Amino acid sequence: MNQEPTPESLSATISQLKQINEQLQLQVAAHQRAEAEVRFLHGITQFINESHDFHSALAIALEKICQFTGWQFGEAWTPSSDDRNLTCSPAWYSADPSLEQFRHSSEGYKFAANIGLPGRVWVSKRPEWLHISQEPETIFLRKSFADRVGFKTALGMPIVDSGDRVLAVLVFFMFASCAENTHLIELVATIAVQLGTLLQRQQAEAALYQSQAWLQAILDNSTALIYIKDLDGKYLLVNVWFSLLFYPDRAGVKGKTDYDIFPPEIAAVLQQNDRKVIAAKSPIDWEELLPHEDDGLHTYLSIKFSLYNERGEPYAICGISTDITERKRAEDALRSSMATNRALLNAIPDLMFRINRSGVFVNFKAAKGDRLHLPAHEFLGKHLSEVFPTEIAKAFDSCIKRTLFTNEVQILECQLIVNDEFRDYELRIAVSAENEVMAIVRDITDRKRTEAEIRLALEKEKELGELKSRFVTMASHEFRTPLATILSSSELLEHYSHKWSEDRKLNHLQRIQTSVKHMTQLLNDVLLIGKAEAGKLEFKPLLIDLKQFCHEIVEEIQLTASDRQIIFQCHADERITGMMDEKLLRHIFINLLSNAVKYSPADSPVNFELTNECDTVIFRVRDRGIGIPLVEQAEIFSSFHRASNVGNISGTGLGLAIVKKSIDLHDGKIAVESSVGLGTIFTVVLPLNKQV
Q1: Are β-strands 566-570 and 542-545 bridged in parallel, bridged antiparallel, or unpaired?
Q2: Residue 87 and residue 107: Cα distance in Å, rounded?
Q3: Taking the CB of the first residue and of the last residue of the chain, which one, N or C, has fewer CB atoms within 10 A?
Q4: Among 171, 189, 14, which residue's Cα sits nearest to residue 102?
C-alpha cells in the first residue's frame, strides 16, 4: 500500500523542485548570455570589417563594447610613429554628453612606457582593473579629472597583433565602484583578440591598397612608358603615358598584342625581343623606333625583364621605355660640334694646355713647330709653380681663378727663356669645363719685335718732325740776320760804291764774306748732325799730341774773341798723346769754348784744363756766364735745343748735339754742372787709345 506523503516530504520535494527550477533558470540565462555574446562578437566583427580605417574600427569597437557591457566611457591610445609614447586616438565613445569635457582634457596627454594606466598596459600587454578612488595621482594621472566627472572604476585592455605588437590600448570607465569582474575582463579580452586580428588584417589591406595606389601613381607620373605582358605577348597593364601615346583606351588594352597597337614591322621586333627576354632569363636593353602620331618616329631606350612566381617560373614580361629622341639629337649635335671644334683646334697652330682649378696640368695639344720643346712628362700632372718661374706661375694661377669666377677670357703676356733666348708669349685662358680651363699659348716674339720697331720708328719720326720744326725755327732766325747783312751791303755797293772810298767798299765786302761764312758754318753743322744721326759720321783716329792740340784750339778761338781771356792749364809735366780723331776733337772743343765765350760776360775768363788718369784723358771747360736752368740740363744735347735764358744771343742749338755725337764716337763721356747766373762746367772724359 502506498503511504500518503507526509507534510515534511512534500516540503522537501517542493524545495528540490525550486532548486532545480532556479538552476534551470540560471542555465537558461547563461545560455542566453552566451548567445548574446556570440551575436555581439559576430556583429562587432562585421562592423569592424566594414569600417574605413584603423581609427574608425577602434571607434566602432569602443561603442559596441560600451553598449554591450555597460561601461559609460571608452577611449583608445595608440603608439606614436617613433614608439616612444602613447597618444590619444580620435576614436572614443560615451552616451553621456557631460563626459565631453573629460575627453577634451585627455587629448593633451601622452603616456610613456609604464606611466599611467595606458602606459602600464602597453608594457605588460595584460588587462588591468583599477579602482580609481583607491589610487594616488602618481598611479592614475588623470585622477582629478576622473573624480570631477564621477568615475570610480577603470579597465585597461591591450589589442595585440599576431606579432605580439600592441596596436592600441583600450580604456573603459564606469561611475559605479565594482569589484574586478573576471568574466567581463575575459569577454572584453576576447573582443580585443578578435579586434587585434581584424585590425591587423585591415591595416595590412590598407597598406596594400596604399602601396598599390602609390605604385599606380608612380607608374602614371613616370615619363617612361611602362607595360606588363603575359608570356603570349598580350598586354596586362600599361601606364598613362603608354596609353596617351599609343592606345587611348587604357582599360581596353588588356588582351591586346603588339600587332594590335604598332605597325607589323615594329610589332615583330617587339615580340622577338620578348622571346629573347624569356630565353635569356635576364634583363635586356636596346634602342627601338616607335611611331608618334605628332611627328613621326621617336627613339626609345627600352629595358625588358621577366616577372617570376614563387616557384621561380616566369609568368609575365615588364617593359620600361624612355624617349631618348632629344638626347639622340643632342648627342648628334654634340658629335657634330665636337668634330667642328676638333677641326678648329687642329687648325690653330698654338700650344694648348688643359688646367684644373688647382693649377695642375691635365692635358695638352702640341703646337705646330712648337719652340717650347717642353716634354709632356715635365708638366702633365704637375702644378704651375713646378713648371713656370714663380712670378709667372702666380700670375697664371690668378688668371685661372678670375676666368672661372667671371667666365670671361683672360689674357696674360709673359717672357720665357727658350734655348738661351728671351721669347715673348701670349696666354689666352678660357673656361673649357667645370673647374677647368683651356690655355692657348702663342709665341708673339716676332710681333713684339715688330711692335718695338714700329714704336721706335714712330719715336724717330716724331723726333724727326721735332727736328724739322726746330730746324725751320732756327734757320728762319739764324739765316735772317746774315742774309739781311748781305742784302743791305750788296745794295749799298750797287748804288753808292762810285761815291765811296776803297776802305768803305772793302768794309762792306768783308761784312758780306763774314755773313756767307756764318751761313756756310751753319749749313756745315746741319750736315754734320745729319750724318751723325744717319750713322755715317766716321771715327778716324790718329796719334795726337793733346797738349799741343789744345794750345792750337785756344789760339784759334782767341783770334775771334780778342776781348775774352781763355786760360789753358795742363796738369801733366810730360807730353800727353792718344789715338783720337782730330776732326771730331775740333768739333768738341771749338763748340764748348765758343759757347763758354759767347755766354760769358766780356770781363770774365774761360778756364780750359787738361788732365790724364791712367788710360783716360779729362778735359774741363769752365765759364762764369749765364748758366743753364736745372730743368733743361737733360735736353741740352738734343739737336736744335736752346736754353730758355739765352735771350737774344744767336745760336743754332746744334753745337752741344755735335759735341755729344763726337764724344760718343770716341766711347767717351760728358758731364755738366751749372747754376743760373754762376756759370757752367763741362767735363769730357775720353779714352786715350780706343780700339777701332
Answers
A1: unpaired
A2: 8
A3: N
A4: 171
Site of grid cell 516530504: 9
Which residue in the block uniquely carries the three cell numbers 602613447?
A: 86
Taking the CA of residue 294 as centre, how many other CA atoms within 13 Å lie in the half-sphere pointing to its CB?
4
Sign of the four-CA dihedral 660, 664, 670, 672: positive
Q: What is the largest CA-CA distance in the chain?
A: 230
**What is the amino acid identity at position 58?**
L
| Closest C-alpha among 104, 101, 102 to residue 90 | 104
Q: Higher model confidence: residue 436 or residue 57? A: 436
Report the C-alpha gap between 48 and 195 in whole angstroms. 8
Q: What are phi and psi of 637, to 5 degrees?
A: -95, 5
Residue recorded with cell 598611479: 139
Query: SS3 of 223, please?
Result: coil
Please state, in angstroms and rounded to a whole number, the distance separating the CA atoms of residues 197 and 125: 15
Ramachandran quadrant class, 150 (left: phi over 0; alpha: psi -120 to 50; beta: rest)? left
- Number of Cβ within 10 Å of residue 356's Cβ equals 15
The amino acid that residue 564 corresponds to is: R
Euclidean distance between the first and the last CA atom of the chain, given in angstroms as a whole number: 191
Joined grid coordinates for residue 349: 697652330
Q: Tens digit of pLDDT for each residue in 526-570?
A: 666 666 666 667 788 889 898 998 998 888 888 777 777 889 999
* Residue whose grid cell is 751791303: 489
Q: Which residues of 559-572 are buried (b: 16+ CB within 10 A; e: fewer)?
A: eebeebebebebee
377: alpha, beta or left, given left = phi > 0 and alpha = psi -120 to 50?
alpha
Kindly calculate the radius of gyration of the chain based on its CA atoms and give it in whole angstroms: 62
Q: How far is CA 116 from CA 97, 126, 132, 503, in A?
A: 25, 14, 12, 154
Dihedral sign for Cα 370, 373, 377, 379, please.
negative
What are 67-122's pLDDT values in tens digits? 888 899 999 999 998 889 999 999 999 989 889 999 999 998 999 999 999 999 99
Rounded Cα gap, residues 169 and 159, in angstroms? 6
DSSP letters, 525-583, are HHHHHHHHHTT------EEEEHHHHHHHHHHHHHHH-TTS-EEEEE--SS--EEEE-HH
207-239 residues labelled b (16+ CB within 10 A) or e (exposed):
eeeeeeeeeeeebeeeebbbbebeeebebbbbb
- Print the SS3 string covering 485-514: HHHHHHHHHHHHCCCCCHHHHHHHHHHHHH
Give me the domains of the chain, ranges plus CATH numbers: 27-208 (3.30.450.40), 222-329 (3.30.450.20), 348-443 (3.30.450.20), 538-687 (3.30.565.10)
Q: Which of 628, 596, 598, 599 is nearest to 609 (CA)?
A: 596
CB atoms within 10 A of CB 313: 9
- Nearest Cα neighbor of 121 from 139, 99, 94, 145 is 139
DSSP characters over 315-384: EEEEEEEEE-HHHHHHHHHHHHHHHHHHHHHHH--SEEEEEETTSBEEEEEPPTT-SS---GGGTTT-BH
Task: Count CA atoms closer than 13 A to 467's CA, side-chain side.
Answer: 15
Beta strand 128-131 pairing with 110-112: unpaired
What is the DSSP annotation of 137-157?
TTTSTTHHHHHHHT--EEEEE
Mean of pLDDT values over 577-590? 87
